[in-house]
Recover the amino acids of this structure.
């Protein structure tokens, strides 16, 4: 049994907390909204994020950061990716010296270009840091449906031991030592899901969606490897696995966001779609590495309003014809 603190009382933080309580861990959620914490404690629901799903009675939530973090052996960062740095800075005074920190948000810091583990390390440099990512809808996990994700730490043995500790019930963790690869896959697949959603919303057909997923995956691998990922990791749960999930289910907020854009609908009231906040920094990083990423670039232009979905379709279809795997011909 471990003492676990979850930072973020949204869909994913609450779902992970539910799974860990079910495994017998002592879990405390920190949420910035006192009313949400009160609802979790008294009504055992988090309706704004998880509808009527029933949460464990012994799951505790608090808006008091000191109370949530003090004494925790494992701390998971589950607020939106762009807020991870601020959350990390705010826990420093309360954190046990040997606490292990796990990044769970999927996104690249759009100010610095840092991955989530780097954002956390910049604020809390003396801690072991890992990453949890993979195909996992909060709505599935909170209902106890089978889910497999990847847990990466810089040392394989440490990853293995933590994956063992946090696996159980319907959640199965696979260990990896490719901390960069696991979070790059999780960040870039959100952008691809928006692109494929735009294609769905624009009524471009199932063949076009399959082509975009495949060519988007080729980009994800090209850029991911240039950024330090191992190609095999990108073929795993946190890469291809999560790409398949989020590019095919309307439960994905990124996919749903893309669909709305493709239909020309108002997106201002939609839920968190991390890809919207990662797309421009991901394109900047691709430019810096000299990596061609037409799907991601076109998605960025549609999201910024520089191009319509129809113009994006024409731009992608009129690119020069080329070898499918140019790197294999050399
Ligand atoms: N929902 C899901 O199925 C999954 C989500 N994730 C990732 O987990 C991260 C969080 O996602 P969700 O929990 O789904 O989002 P959400 O929108 O359901 O919840 C976000 C939570 O963070 C809080 N929050 C927002 N801004 C904040 C800030 N500046 N400081 C502190 N707290 C803040 C909100 O009040 C809310 O409680 C995202 O990066 C997402 O990609 C990963 C796997 C599955
Ligand atoms: O990352 C997720 C599933 O693995 C959740 O996807 P969305 O953020 O697009 O809802």
């Amino acid at each position: 049994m471990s003492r676990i603190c979850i930072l973020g009382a949204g869909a994913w933080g609450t779902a992970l907390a539910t799974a860990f309580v079910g495994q017998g861990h002592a879990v405390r959620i920190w949420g910035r909204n006192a009313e949400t914490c009160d609802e979790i404690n008294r009504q055992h629901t988090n309706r704004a994020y998880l509808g009527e799903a029933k949460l464990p009675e012994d799951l505790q939530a608090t808006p008091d950061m000191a109370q949530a973090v003090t004494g925790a052996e494992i701390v998971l960062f589950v607020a939106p990716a762009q807020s991870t740095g601020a959350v990390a800075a705010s826990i420093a005074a309360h954190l046990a010296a040997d606490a292990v920190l796990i990044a769970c948000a999927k996104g690249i810091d759009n100010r610095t270009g840092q991955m989530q583990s780097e954002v956390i390390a910049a604020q809390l440099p003396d801690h072991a840091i890992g990453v949890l990512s993979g195909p996992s809808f909060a709505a599935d996990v909170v209902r106890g449906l089978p889910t497999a994700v990847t847990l990466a730490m810089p040392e394989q043995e440490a990853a293995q031991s933590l994956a063992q500790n946090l696996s159980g019930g319907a959640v199965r963790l696979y260990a990896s030592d490719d901390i960069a690869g696991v979070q790059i896959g999780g960040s870039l697949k959100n952008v691809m899901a928006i692109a494929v959603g735009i294609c769905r919303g624009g009524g471009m057909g199932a063949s076009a969606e399959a082509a975009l997923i495949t060519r988007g995956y080729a980009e994800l691998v090209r850029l991911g490897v240039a950024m330090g990922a191992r190609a095999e990791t990108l073929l795993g749960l946190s890469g291809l696995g999560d790409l398949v999930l989020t590019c095919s289910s309307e439960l994905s907020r990124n996919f749903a966001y893309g669909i709305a854009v493709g239909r020309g609908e108002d997106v201002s009231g939609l839920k968190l779609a991390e890809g919207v906040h990662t797309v421009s920094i991901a394109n900047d990083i691709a430019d810096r590495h000299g990596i061609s990423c037409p799907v991601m670039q076109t998605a960025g232009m549609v999201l910024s309003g520089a191009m319509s979905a129809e113009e994006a379709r024409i731009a992608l279809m009129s690119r020069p014809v080329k070898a499918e795997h140019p790197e294999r011909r050399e």
Observations:
- The longest strand covers residues 147-152.
- The first helix runs from residue 11 to 22.
